[in-house]
Amino acid sequence: MSLHGLLRPDVVQAAGPVDDRVPVTVLTGFLGAGKTTLINRVLATAEGERLLVIVNEFGDIGVDHALMAHAHDDGVIELAGGCVCCSRNGDLGRTLADAIWRFSRQGRRDFDAVVIETTGLATPETVTAVLHRDYRVAAHYRLNGVVTVIDASSVLTAHLEHAEISRQAGGADRIILGKADLSDPGALSEVRRWATSINPVADIVESAVTAPFELASTGWRLAPLAALPPAERHGDMPSATVVMADEIDPHAFATWLDLLLVTAGPTLLRLKGLVCCGPDTFRLAIHAVQGIVHPAARLRQKPVGQGSYLVLIGEALRNPAVLSLLDASGALFGATTTYRGL
Fold this sequence. Notes:
2 domains, 17 strands, Rossmann fold, six-stranded antiparallel β-sheet
């Protein structure tokens, strides 16, 4: 049964009495769509509400978690090393159950709501299933809804190559058009039409929307999730984690990175990392999405005990020339590279 089929009147249930469990929002979106940027904006502007963020990362090192924790000292939990939608549901259940006592003061819970940021390859249905099926979780949490960020500048072509994008949009209560400023009005209208065709009941807004995780109550919830199709597993998507020396030569690194990105091309779905390029106490956040490099962001300080590292995701890692460049990072930067899915 498709996700659309789950919205028919004969397969939905009326909501029960007032529910005082913790609301959980599942945030999905393909690699590089802008999920972390959205959460950081919410955390920076949140007033009053105490938000717990659970970040699931595909690589062995949590880059997004480090960026959030850098700006916000408390309430960020990392689940690294696998995709929560297909291989780490047990970890998610334990994390949510443990958070009730882990983030509490004098016996009272110290957060009002939870946002789960999934990997760029995750689809929402099996993540939301944890909230319904895990008794440790269902006793304390309820599903607020699913928010999906799409990259408005590339989604019309990217969804043809990556089925996850359509599944993410199809399972959303709200679709947020990320990077809308990079699209002209005509193209943005086409993106809205595509999103509506995929999910006619979703609220479609731009990323500047106020309170993106405050979703209107629909008065119903999805039927028991046993009706959902089996989740797709992503264990065959290659990833690599490159851990480098604490300080590296910025000119050599820039040359190596340019060559790596040109060689990999758009099949390198995502590159992200934190790099220390000198004796100063700051690091640079590096981001690239399918060959497009975003300006490096300078962090205020270098966290103690953490050096330079990159996480790469995509079929480009099956290219021998790319693997040779990653091997060369050992001699250039004292790097150690570990692989998954190869």
